[in-house]
Amino acid sequence: MSRPRATGAADSRCPSCAAPVLTQWVGTVAALKVTADLTPLTPEQQAAVLEPNRLVWCLYRASAHSTPRLRWITASHPTGCTHPHVTEHRCPPAEPTTLF
Ligand SMILES: [Zn+2]
Ligand SMILES: [Zn+2]
Predict the structure, then answer these.
(1) Nearest ligand by distance to the CA of 70
(2) Which of 5, 18, 33, 73 has the fewest CB atoms in 10 Å of its CB?
(3) CB atoms inside a 10 Å sphere around CB 17
């Protein structure tokens, strides 16, 4: 058992591409481990990334100093939500540095 400590801030890095990510268990009944990018998406980007296996999350912060929490975006989610919406992290394609 470790001491309780704040998790979920941008202290995680993707082990593959080192991008800052947020890894959190989301949900109370069937918790889902989510690794999210920290870049907020515009509504257009959210629509573009939406696909059956890729979810968009609401990065909710109760106050400026509280730990951000990923929330499900449900049907009742406000359309004018002011929190950043982020999506699941995917590593960018590797740079083709070995060509030529
Ligand atoms: Zn939201
Ligand atoms: Zn990555």
Answers:
(1) 1
(2) 5
(3) 13
Residue type, 43: P
Task: Count CB-CB contacts under 10 A for residue 16.
Answer: 11
Instruction: Compare 11 and 82 and report the one with higher pLDDT.
Output: 82
Q: How far is the CA of 92 from the centre of ligand 1 (A)?
A: 25
Starting from the CA of residue 59, give the closest ligand: 1
Contact 85, 56 (CB under 8 A): yes
Q: What is the 3-state secondary structure (H, E, C) of 22-78?
A: EEEEECCCCCEEEEEECCCCCHHHHHHHCECCECEEEEECCCCCCCCEEECCCCCCC
DSSP string, 6-20: --SSTTEE-TTT--E
Q: Over the chain, what is the mean pLDDT?
A: 82
Cα–ligand 1 centroid distance for 90 (angstroms) = 21
The tokens of 27 are what?
A: 């949900």
What pTM value is reported for the model?
A: 0.72
